[in-house]
Request: fold
Amino acid sequence: MQNISTLTRDQSQFIEELASLLVAWGQPTAAARLYGYLLLRNEPASLDDIARDLEISKTNAFGAATELERQRNLRRLGERGSKRVFFVLTDDPGAPLRKHVALLGRMEALISARKDNVATGEAAVRMASLANFHERLRVAM
Reply:
């Protein structure tokens, strides 16, 4: 078996650039790279495919897949008559940002509900503005 990645240089660069953006949002590096990799695939990927193409161990590949599965960004597919597992992205393009949208909603709710009890004057105005910003951002996302 060859251990040479099947990715083009442009594909590898895209994966790394996308991963750096997702890492800034709190996604673990391996999971962010796996998300970018699966985004480019036309068929399900096995752990062997992932490990080879991303040049990581199968253990690291499985951990990244488990993280993305927990976040509902990917799903596992079994192979009939085999223990082999394949991975594909879910059909929800917003899945990578869903937890951030929920967090924005919780922040807006907390600030709106508590601002009058914890702040006065300019601080209260600033908190109301921040709550409004979080709501607009959540709705836009």
